[in-house]
């Protein structure tokens, strides 16, 4: 008999139901049968855009976030998995920018996180000048290499775990069609 392992999964962010996806022509992609459904009583649960779950496997923390679009279908759910400095995809795209205030050499400084092309960049500004800069391939990696604010992951410091930021990113990822004149 095969051994099965129980993995505890924690819901971090509930996510959002989007009318066009969950109740429109692509709704079949966005609802899943519940595991306790029976022949006589089918129940479904929604796959929510922006939903993030956390699981620990082999003492490593994994975050799974649901996004709009996957490699096969731009209207189906996609999944981004992040663990440590490794991510299956950066949540933002080129041009994304966020900032926070923190101390640098015991003085207030502006930490600006940006994504340019395939690079995540962290610049530390003080007195209207860039004091130092770090470049890496993911939000987690760039913040780790900076050695600042070590008790948070880079995806949090970039702002990707903030519910308002996530909702804005996911809404902007949804393809829209507009009539042309």
From TrEMBL:
It comes from the Eukaryota. This is 13880_t:CDS:1. It comes from Ambispora leptoticha.
């Amino acid at each position: 008999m095969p051994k099965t392992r129980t993995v505890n999964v924690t819901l971090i962010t509930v996510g959002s139901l989007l009318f066009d996806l969950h109740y429109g022509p692509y709704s079949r992609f966005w609802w899943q049968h519940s595991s306790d459904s029976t022949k006589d009583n089918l129940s479904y649960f929604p796959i929510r855009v922006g939903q993030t779950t956390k699981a620990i496997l082999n003492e490593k923390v994994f975050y799974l976030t649901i996004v709009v679009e996957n490699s096969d279908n731009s209207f189906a759910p996609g999944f981004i998995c992040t663990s440590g400095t490794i991510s299956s995809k950066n949540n933002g795209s080129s041009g994304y920018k966020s900032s926070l205030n923190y101390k640098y050499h015991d003085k207030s400084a502006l930490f600006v996180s940006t994504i340019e092309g395939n690079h995540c960049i962290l610049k530390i500004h003080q007195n209207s000048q860039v004091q130092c800069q770090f470049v890496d391939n993911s939000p987690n990696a760039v913040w780790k290499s900076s050695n600042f604010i070590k008790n948070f992951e880079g995806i949090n410091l970039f702002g990707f775990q903030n519910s308002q930021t996530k909702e804005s990113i996911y809404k902007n990822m949804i393809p829209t069609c507009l009539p042309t004149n």
